[in-house]
């Protein structure tokens, strides 16, 4: 009987968990769409980020992670939390509320390309031929995706919210690099969630008066819990716990599975039918993201969604 090394077993387990996490993040979009039928966007994100934050801190503490952020870096983590958690989550909720979930997903996952462009402008990172190809694919894909919509009805507000998702994620990612934040990724994610929740809580009480989480039907309650427990708390904990055990390519393939699963699930479970321009645009944007994420020997420390 062949001997199986423990390292190989751990890597195989990590790969399996990445696949499961892709399902968790992919179906997170579907759960949010179901919850938004009854829950206002601010209240949904209040529950999701609040419960998820508690779970992430508890899991990190139980696993023995150092959850302390150096004093000089707290303000930088707070700024990242404003964009990466609060802005991203609110924009994504309003994008789904005002338009098709599948289209919101497609546009949102152009985010690695905008990160590349911002990194060039602010961090002076080199634009390699692969990155230039990715940018070209992204621009062409977005043009194919959006032109029929603009020609028919002007620029839909849902598209603007989706771009807000992509740009807020990219801004946070580049900001963390720019400020040379050294805090460990899981600790960074936990505190970003906490600071993001504070911003979301303020917005919830300002716009909704109070978190409007009752009365709800059972499917809405389950959807909110899925977003909070799996889409935010446990998913982020497991991702940052296992990503260090995998190669950059393997981890990135896992994150690329999320939009594919989410778009397929939106068609099957939400009854959405992407148009031909949606499908072509998605294929090109996905290819662009793959060009960025699948570069050899490049580790990605950003928070995936």
Give an overview of the whole structure:
The chain is mainly alpha-helical and 305 residues long. Helix content is 76%, strand content 0%. The chain has one domain. The longest helix has 30 residues, at 6-35.
The percent of residues in helical segments reads: over 70%
- H/E element sequence: HHHHHHHHHHH
Unreliable spans are none
Overall form = globular
SS summary, helix count: 11
C-alpha termini separation:
41 Å
| Strand proportion | under 5%
Total tally of structural domains: 1
Derived structural class:
mainly alpha
Task: Kindly state the number of beta strands.
Answer: 0
Largest sheet: none
Mean pLDDT across every amino acid position: 90
| C-alpha Rg (nearest Å) | 19 Å
């Amino acid at each position: 009987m062949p001997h199986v090394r423990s390292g190989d077993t751990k890597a195989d387990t990590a790969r399996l968990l990445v696949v499961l996490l892709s399902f968790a993040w992919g179906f997170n979009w579907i759960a949010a769409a179901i919850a938004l039928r009854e829950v206002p966007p601010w209240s949904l994100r209040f529950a999701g980020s609040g419960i998820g934050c508690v779970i992430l801190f508890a899991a990190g503490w139980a696993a023995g992670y150092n959850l302390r952020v150096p004093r000089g870096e707290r303000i930088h983590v707070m700024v990242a939390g404003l964009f990466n958690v609060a802005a991203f989550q609110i924009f994504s909720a309003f994008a789904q509320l005002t338009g098709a979930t599948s289209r919101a997903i497609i546009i949102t996952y152009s985010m690695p390309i905008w990160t590349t462009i911002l990194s060039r402008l602010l961090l002076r990172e080199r634009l390699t031929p692969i990155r230039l190809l990715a940018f070209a694919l992204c621009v062409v894909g977005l043009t194919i995706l959006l032109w029929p919509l603009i020609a028919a009805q002007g620029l839909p507000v849902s598209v603007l919210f989706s771009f807000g998702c992509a740009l807020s994620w990219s801004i946070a990612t580049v900001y963390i690099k720019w400020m040379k934040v050294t805090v460990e990724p899981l600790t960074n994610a936990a505190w970003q969630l906490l600071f993001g929740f504070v911003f979301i809580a303020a917005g919830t009480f300002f716009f909704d008066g109070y978190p409007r989480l009752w009365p709800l039907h059972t499917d809405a309650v389950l959807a909110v819990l899925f977003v909070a427990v799996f889409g935010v708390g446990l998913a982020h904990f497991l991702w940052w716990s296992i990503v260090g055990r995998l190669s950059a390519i393997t981890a990135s393939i896992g994150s690329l599975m999320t939009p594919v699963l989410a778009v397929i699930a939106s068609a099957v479970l939400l009854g959405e039918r992407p148009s031909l321009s949606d499908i072509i645009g998605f294929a090109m944007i996905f290819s662009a993201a793959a060009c960025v994420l699948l570069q050899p020997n490049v580790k990605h420390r950003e928070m995936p969604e």
